[in-house]
Structures are given as C-alpha cells and as structure tokens.
Design a protein that fits this description.
Largest sheet: none
Number of strands: 0
Distance between the termini: 46 Å
Helix content: over 70%
Strand content: under 5%
Shape: elongated
Length: 79
Amino acid sequence: MNMDYYYEKKRRSGPDRGYAWVVAIGCFFINAILVGIARSVAVLYVALVEEYGITRQQATLPFSIRVSLRNLSGKRLRK
C-alpha cells in the first residue's frame, strides 16, 4: 500500500471539505441583517408614534413582544 496515497486521502477526508467557510460567511451575513433590523427599532418606533398618534407604551408593545418571543424561544429551540 502506498503511504503517500493514505496520507493524502486522510488529509482530504475532513468533515467539512471546505464548506465550513461558506457556512461561517452565511452565518455572518444573517447575523448582520438581524442586528441591523434590531437596531432599526428606534426609527420604526418614532414612525409609529408620529403616523398613528399612539402613546409610547402602545408603540413599544410590538417590539417588546418580538424580543420576548425571541428570548423565550431560545430555550425551546435548543432541545
């Protein structure tokens, strides 16, 4: 048996075969988009108050529900 062939095959037979970088870059972009959406809450908040003439408490309710659902679903999705 040729040992060079064995070592070359062993080196190429990793679990990701180079796709780990694709997954990492994809996760980076998804997180960047989600953080951008989370940071744009202030703009949406002001728009809700001005457009619909509602109180600050009423304008905050949808954003509070979104954050609560995201944080509470983490435990459930982890299993």
